[in-house]
Automatic annotation (TrEMBL):
InterPro entries: UbiA_prenyltransferase, UbiA_sf. This is UbiA family prenyltransferase. It comes from the Bacteria. Its main location: membrane. It is found in: Membrane. Keywords: Membrane, Transmembrane, Transmembrane helix.
Length: 295
């Protein structure tokens, strides 16, 4: 019988050494890629300048990497005690010291790259990154847990607009929509894990509200973000914009009120997160369609 210790399946699939794969997986690669692609697409749609696009993309990428690594390194002991799956630091696939070093290295690169986009653009983006670090280190345990998400997502249109020639300020509706989507992302992200978070002593806003009230609150920032994107830009909204708004309202209501079986089960909490993703996708499409109007 072969008793040789084998690395976890994700490590073998990546074809990387165990510690390297653990480092990659501990950065939260899905959200990192999603946010980086979104902001890069917004930068491309907002105006010309391949060099600017690269700077914006790498600034966002390094910022998101630093936030993901900070999160897993700081929560390593808590994640290990809760036996949470998918946490490479908690299961010993990579050491917390290695992840902390990567987090601070990425943060340093983010500062340089952000400021290379312009002083105001860099300051706006770094404010969002610092807010995300504050969430990881303390604010997620407080009633202000929503604030870093609002600041972080709201700072992204600022980075894109202020990196343009002349450093124009972003349109108010772009920043407001980003902040609202950030608040919704926080609610939708935390919702499936509220009970586990409460057992671990995490009492952010969604945990204090509880699953039922968080589920009922979730449609408000989502629908508000869509309304801002439809009604905020100058000019009369097109018929398709109102169709999107109506569809978003219907989607959020269905996704956050569905129950399966005689009592609520985990599936309806996942449905709320799926609804968040669907509505956020519609809002992203609206935002990208208005890329040249964000200033």
């Amino acid at each position: 019988m072969d008793t040789t210790e084998r690395p976890p399946a994700p490590t073998r699939a990546l074809g990387l050494p165990r510690s390297s794969a653990g480092l990659v997986l501990s950065c939260h690669p899905g959200p990192v890629a999603a946010v980086t692609v979104l902001v890069t697409a917004l930068a491309v749609s907002s105006g010309p300048g391949a060099g600017r696009w690269v700077l914006v993309a790498t600034a966002v990428l390094t910022g998101q990497l630093s936030v993901g690594w900070c999160n897993d390194a700081f929560d390593a002991r808590r994640d290990a005690e809760a036996a949470r799956p998918g946490k490479p630091v908690a299961r010993g696939a990579v050491g917390p010291g290695t992840v902390w070093s990567a987090a601070f290295a990425a943060l340093s690169l983010c500062a340089v790259l952000s400021l290379a986009c312009g002083a105001w653009a860099g300051a706006a983006h770094l404010a969002g990154v610092v807010a995300a670090w504050a969430y990881n280190l303390k604010l997620k345990e407080t009633v202000l847990s929503w604030l870093p998400y609002a600041v972080g997502f709201g700072s992204l249109p600022c980075l894109v607009a202020l990196s343009l020639p002349g450093n124009p300020w972003p349109a108010w509706w772009a920043v407001a929509a980003g902040a609202l989507l950030g608040g919704a992302a926080h609610l939708g992200d935390v919702l499936p894990d509220i009970e586990a978070d409460l057992r671990a002593g995490i009492r952010g806003l969604p945990q204090r509200l509880g699953p039922a009230r968080t589920r009922l609150l979730l449609p408000l920032p989502l629908t508000a973000a869509t309304a801002v994107l439809v009604l905020g830009p100058a000019g009369a909204p097109a018929g398709r914009d109102f169709a999107v708004l109506s569809g978003v309202a219907l989607c959020t209501v269905v996704a956050t009120t569905v129950h399966i079986g005689p009592r609520p089960v985990r599936a309806w909490r996942k449905a709320a997160l799926a609804g968040t993703v669907a509505v956020a996708s519609a809002d992203v499409a609206l935002l990208l369609a208005r890329g040249t109007d964000i200033v």
